[in-house]
Structure prediction request, 404 residues.
Amino acid sequence: MKISFYFKASQSTVLKNEGFGIIYYYVNINSRKSVEKSTKIKCHRNEWDERNGFFVGFDAERRNRQIAQMKDVLEMNKIVKEMMGETLTVETVELNLVDRKLARTFKTVFAEYLDQQYAKIRADGELKHKGNIELSTYNSYLKREKNIDKFLKSINKEELLVSQFNERMCEMFDNYLTSRLKCGQSYATKHLKLIRTVCQLAKTSNIIKVNFTENYKLKHDPVKNVKTLNENDYQLLFDNFNMLTDTERKYIDVFLFMRETLLNYGDYLELEEAKHLQQDETGRYWIIKARKKRTEENNQIQTVPLSKKALEIMEKYQGIDKMPKMNLSTLQKYIKRAFAKVGVQKKVSSKLSRSSGISIAFNKRKLRGELIAYVAGWTSTREIRNYLEIDKVELSKDYLKGLD
Prediction:
């Protein structure tokens, strides 16, 4: 299929005599010429290079970009016809260059998608369901949008049509993130899933007929073993506790409290003594709290019997309500500094409090997965694999018990 553009003089006698006209186009398939159609781009005869088929002179760059976009749309129409199994002839080829389509660059459709997601941000107190998202999720979309913008700018495709985001573009973007920016594969895959979702929005909105990004095979990082803090790491911390500043000790107390209770940081911040702390008839204290990330379909409840260590930390601050509360980034900064100071050579984060608590409960205290899930507020044991580091020494002892 050959696409040809040419200058046609205006039908107005005055404009025609002055040398003005409009650029038209047609396609040639198997030596047969299609009907001619207008691009609606007006210009002077001297601004069009008939031999080479592009604009020269005034505003040539923008106009040539329009011509290139039109060629891409026609080529895409051809590909769509072929994918749908239709015979391509001058009668069946799709020649429509709808202005709305040309205006729909990937970035404009992405902006519409972000507007939709902004309206879905979950309000305070609203339960999680398929129709809403967290504010942090929306913010992650904004960060990914910036990376996509940088990529399109790096290849001079800022006005890329949504129909042009195909397998090849996905591959280029994947390589851009993993090779040039040195990002992890899972990070890149999250971007590509978002691109696929945006293109699917374009398809359901009848902006494009085929979502070519669906054909790109997503890459995934190999499954990694969970890394957590073991008993030796904690012994280093306790032996060198005096090395820490008062501020560092305060944040370590929060870290240890979350380890003992299997609370994540969002649930820890929501704790209220009057609301969540209960005492049973035997005198044992419990934290009973609905999880922050619970869903409408399943109101997940954490039921945590407080250990001696958790009670000591709570009593140190004269109750849950007076325990330190800070933003997550501040907590991360101080616990990393504290563990590094005592000689723990690991990448420490707040998540390790929960994962080490779960790993110790499973490996040392021999708690069943169902009990751990109940305390953590999960409806199944499936989530445990994201937090549990199996102690192979303990595993071999238990598995081979009575066989040697």
Remarks:
- DSSP finds 16 helices and nine strands in the chain.
- The beta strands are 2-9, 20-29, 32-33, 37-44, 48-49, 54-55, 277-279, 285-290, 301-305.
